[in-house]
Amino acid sequence: MQRFIIKGGRRLRGELPLQGSKNSALPIMAATLLCGGECVLTGCPGLTDIYSAARILNYTGCRCTFSENTAAVDSRDIRETSIPEQLMREMRSSIIFMGALLGRTGECIVSIPGGCELGPRPIDMHLAAMRKMGIDIKESGGRIVCRAAAGKAHGARLSLAFPSVGATENIILCAVSAEGETVVNNAAREPEICDLCEFLRQCGADISGDGESRIIINGRNDLHGCEHRIMPDRIAGATYLSMTAATRGEMILSNACISEMEPFLSVLEQTGCSIYTGENRIYLRSGARLKAVSDRIRTMPHPGFPTDAQAVLMAALATADGTSVFEENIFDCRYRHTDALVKMGADIQVLGKVAIVRGVPLLHGASVEATDLRGGAAMVAAALAAEGTTEISRIDHIDRGYEKIEEAVGRLGGEMLRSG
Ligand code: UD1
Questions:
Q1: Which of 211, 261, 366, 390 qualifies as a cystine partner to 383, CB 3.0-4.6 A?
Q2: Are 329 and 323 in contact (CB under 8 A)?
Q3: What is the pLDDT of residues 126-176, one digit of tens each?
Q4: Coil vs helix vs strand at 409
Q5: Which of 44, 108, 116, 146 is flagged as catalytic?
Q6: 35 carries an active-site annotation
Q7: Which CATH code, of 3.40.50.300, 3.30.413.10, 2.60.120.260, 3.65.10.10, is assigned to 22-229?
Q8: Whose CA is nearest to atom 37 of ligand 1?
Q9: Distance between CA 363 and CA 33 in Å, rounded?
């Protein structure tokens, strides 16, 4: 089992180009199934989740190759619509292949992605929407058997109880080649949804309203392949900026998506960091001290503060002057990283969905275990700021979302090694 060994106490300083977005690349890879042609995705991050998506595509009969951040997918021949449980389990977001396979073939067998790390992650909204689009769904022994009653899905008027990112993506994927019009009310407005829709429009799909809460899709039969550049990863961006703030450093994040990162940047600015933006670059300079954030930091669907940036910002605020309060409104178990931060000397009290972070002068190194992807990244941020050496195990969680994180940190002058 590999580990990260991090020697803390160095101010991060330098320039880092932002990797492509994992959460954008995954649904777009699923969407290539719909085109029946060749697609080229540039700016695709080299991550374990992306390789899992490639394995699923290859299993269905597509040809997916990956080299130097470019994924090429040929989806002319599909021969398999039943995804083995083992492949589904490799990656939690494998469920988005359901909508894509249904859109392309009118049938699929998938399974509930197992072993949730952020508390229960039900897919009831996904299934209810598919049923309204004419899909018969039978669940047995963890397998979900789906078949379009009329051979093909049809359009529907849908209202989501919550703007779920995954459910919105699955609906879009199923609807772009369904019969007729689909209207999604209370749709998720995350930038990655817009990137997916942009890709699909380039393939010939008829979609409007993405980025707003009502998306309208008119099904078409004539989708084709295209070339698309994956948007930058706003969460990886938030992570590297938080690490830099935690170490009181200074950095330029290039290839950044500034407006998409605004909900995070406006909160980070309240810590007293100077932030300047322009031409896809974000410049951040932290003073010798960070201020606690006085307003409660409430995670919300976009354009609210992103839940995926909660843990990394918390790591920076662990040594701020004063008390910051987080309120996690998206996932039930999203404070699992706090035990590790406390082990490193942080003063954090969790009360249900609220976490109270009282800033301490300094953290110290410790031996900790990554609990989940963003929680693991928070441990890296804390370790870089801490006095002494930190060892982080279960780094497979971190590798799911950060491309060569130790090299990125090294580029900024941090001391981080992968061992084992
Ligand atoms: C996506 C992101 C994840 C991010 C999250 C929220 C990807 C690959 N993952 O996850 O990084 O943290 O959005 O921004 O893009 N829910 C239900 N029933 C459903 C679907 C969701 O109750 O059918 C609940 C979930 O349990 C959760 C909330 O809705 O509490 C938000 O989930 P959702 O927006 O669907 O997140 P994901 O798509 O899983």
A1: 390
A2: no
A3: 999 999 999 999 988 889 999 999 899 999 999 999 999 999 999 999 999
A4: helix
A5: 116
A6: no
A7: 3.65.10.10
A8: 166
A9: 47
